[in-house]
């Protein structure tokens, strides 16, 4: 596929606000997980919580959209000059030629939970009687309204692959001539439905998660927001590139990947073919690596049988926790930072490597030029996505 430029990008997570906070934490191998202090009855686990969301209401003109999820999105949109970049993109192409394509798995469900806790004679309390909140489309609607964008506005909710798949949606819309640029990304915030839901599946670890460790015992849930602007490379100098993507759905099980990783491998092969590259061309892979038994088992075997030892690979969920619908964009941003800084992130949390892991695994931070990188995002139901990125020089 013709490469697309990533004109701007940003992220907020438990590691901090903005790209530099993430780069500093990754360089120091400093994680952001902490004992759970969220919800009315906190579970005994660790979470990746973003500080200050409760104290950052939206501007008065956006009050009808106010909730934790949209607050976190707004925080991220105000960093790294991203809001100005969105406005400049709107001016360059026109409001109707810029799409808003965002992924989320829970949207503003936290506000809906609060409303049901405080029902007033069976009705939503007055302060939460705002229909725009209680819908899976709340996030994308909010961002489009905040920046007065009039192009296609789409919510992707495919669990943990949501905010990776939006890059694929952007490429198709640009290639078909429907738009000239897209704001892509996603946001997911902590809420009881997620914490207790994953706990009921016996997937939440009582300690910080340990991706690809032989003794791993579950995930740590986090929250994050991230965004990027994707457009044709003409007129965009020295920007990192989206050179390929792959998507697949194995539909093997509601919450367990195919035991041979067939869906994940289809997505990976699709991304490599679309990018026109071979496994040996890949310098780094940001793995999905949730620290659940099955995901890490399948992904470790896939990487070990596909890539040479020179390819480096690691999961960064030990830094941030699993941010669910925001994982795709957060880890895409981390992958782009790894390329920018020539630094492979550590696989934080693992001290006893799973024997299925091959020599590709980077257990500790490494300095290495990264020209081409992949980012894996695998969701429940076997809904898989893989993104391929490259330096601007790759286009030549």
UniProtKB/TrEMBL annotation:
Pfam family, one: ketoacyl-synt
InterPro entries, per database record: Beta-ketoacyl_synthase, Ketoacyl_synth_AS, Ketoacyl_synth_C, Ketoacyl_synth_N, PKS_Beta-ketoAc_synthase_dom, Thiolase-like
Residues in Ketosynthase family 3 (KS3) domain copies: 1-391
Keyword Zinc: no
Domain of life: Bacteria
Protein keywords: Transferase
Presence of keyword tRNA processing: no
Pathway: Lipid metabolism; fatty acid biosynthesis
PANTHER family: BETA-KETOACYL SYNTHASE, POLYKETIDE SYNTHASE-RELATED
UniProt xrefs under NCBIfam families: PRK09185.1 (NF006618)
Protein name: Beta-ketoacyl-[acyl-carrier-protein] synthase family protein
SUPFAM superfamilies: Thiolase-like
Protein family: Belongs to the thiolase-like superfamily. Beta-ketoacyl-ACP synthases family.
């Amino acid at each position: 596929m013709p490469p697309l430029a990533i004109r701007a990008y940003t992220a907020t997570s438990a590691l901090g606000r903005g790209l530099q906070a993430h780069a500093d934490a990754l360089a120091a191998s400093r994680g952001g997980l902490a004992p759970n202090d969220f919800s009315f009855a906190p579970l005994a686990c660790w979470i990746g919580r973003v500080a200050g969301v409760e104290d950052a209401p939206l501007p008065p003109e956006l009050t009808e959209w106010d909730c934790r999820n949209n607050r976190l999105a707004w925080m991220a949109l105000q960093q790294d000059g991203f809001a100005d970049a969105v406005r400049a993109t709107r001016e360059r192409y026109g409001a109707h030629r810029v799409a808003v394509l965002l992924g989320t798995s829970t949207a503003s469900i936290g506000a809906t939970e609060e409303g049901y806790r405080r029902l007033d004679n069976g009705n939503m309390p007055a302060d939460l009687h705002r229909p725009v909140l209680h819908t899976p489309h709340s996030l994308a609607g909010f961002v489009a309204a905040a920046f007065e964008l009039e192009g296609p506005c789409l919510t992707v909710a495919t669990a943990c692959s949501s905010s990776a798949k939006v890059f694929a949606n952007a490429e198709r819309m640009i290639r078909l001539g429907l738009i000239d640029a897209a704001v892509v990304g996603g946001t997911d915030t902590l809420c009881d439905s997620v914490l207790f839901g994953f706990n009921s599946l016996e997937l939440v670890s009582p300690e910080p998660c340990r991706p690809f460790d032989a003794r791993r015992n579950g995930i740590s849930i986090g929250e994050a927001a991230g965004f990027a602007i994707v457009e044709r490379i003409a007129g965009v100098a020295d920007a990192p590139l989206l050179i390929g993507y792959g998507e697949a759905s194995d539909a093997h099980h509601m919450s367990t990947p195919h035991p041979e990783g067939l869906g994940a491998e289809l997505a990976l092969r699709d991304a490599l073919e679309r990018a026109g590259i071979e496994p040996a061309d890949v310098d780094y892979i940001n793995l999905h690596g949730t620290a659940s038994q099955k995901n890490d088992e399948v992904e470790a075997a896939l990487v070990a049988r596909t890539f040479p030892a020179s390819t480096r690979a690691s999961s960064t969920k030990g830094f941030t926790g699993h941010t669910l619908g925001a994982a795709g964009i957060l880890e895409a941003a981390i992958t782009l930072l790894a390329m920018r800084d020539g630094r492979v992130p550590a696989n934080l949390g693992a001290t006893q490597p799973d024997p299925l892991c091959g020599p590709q695994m980077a257990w500790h931070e490494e300095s290495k030029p990264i020209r081409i990188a992949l980012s894996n995002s695998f969701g429940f139901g076997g809904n898989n996505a893989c993104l391929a990125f490259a330096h601007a020089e790759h286009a030549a």
